[in-house]
Amino acid sequence: MPETTAREQKLLQYLNEAHGKEEELVTALQAHLAMTTRPAYRKRLEEHLAETRAQSRNLERRIAQLGGSVDQGVVTEVAETAQAVASRALSLAKGQLHALRGTGEAEKMLKNAKTEYFNEHEEIATYLAIETLAEALGDDDTARLAREHRRQEERMAAFLERQIPVLTKAVVTEEIPPRERRPAGQTRTVRSRSRVTGSGGAGGAKRGAGGAGAKRGSGGAKSAGAAGGSGRTRPRAGATRARTRSAS
After folding, report:
1. Cβ-proximal residues to 160 (8 Å cutoff; 6+ apart), any chain
2. Cβ partners under 8 Å of residue 34, min gap 6
3. pTM for the complete prediction?
4. Chunked in runs of 10, what are the mean pLDDT values of the chain (248 residues)?
5. Are 119 and 28 in contact (CB under 8 A)?
6. Using CA atoms, how far apart are residues 173 and 167, in angstroms rounded to an integer?
7. What domains can be seen in the chain, in order of their start residue?
8. What is the C-alpha separation between 230 and 61, in angstroms, rounded?
């Protein structure tokens, strides 16, 4: 069997690293599915679990086409096999720990979604590196495979980015009583401001009414004065005739 070149060793190393991560995520996603009750979220996890298994098979196939085997990389096959065994043990432990996280149903799903979001971005970086390496080494088939996998991870990450706020609001609804969803001081301040505003409005109304009364009083005085002035300047017609007869 011909000796593996440095080019092939590096490609096999990166592909094996991606394969190990996919196998780890198969175990984690299975554990997450057991805790997921929201239909839309559960359906998307099932779809991505199927994608993850297919990605693992695609990587195994590409590794074989390059003359390598799963768990074989740039270091000796024994060391890589030990690393793969350790990775599988770690993924099993993570799956068991994930089953214990959170205090309520919504919070468990939220923590799982945050972990999945982290893993998706790690995979995006992994496949971007494989794609770039393969292009630099003229391996179009590996570059195409890595690009396809990267896009699948990007779609899952975009779904999780929309799902995390939904799950966070579900935690609020499930675990925080409605009366405690605003700071107590903030509630009192709003109420006191409402009372002050109402009191000020009443005072303003009273002042307005007083002002209107004063204006009416002033208007009445002016009318009276006008009437008095008219009496002094225009004597009665009878008094004028009496003075005329006396003068005759």
Report:
1. 113, 116, 117, 120
2. 99
3. 0.66
4. 85 98 97 96 98 98 96 48 52 50 85 98 98 98 98 98 98 94 71 57 52 50 45 50 48
5. yes
6. 10
7. 6-178 (1.20.1260.10)
8. 118
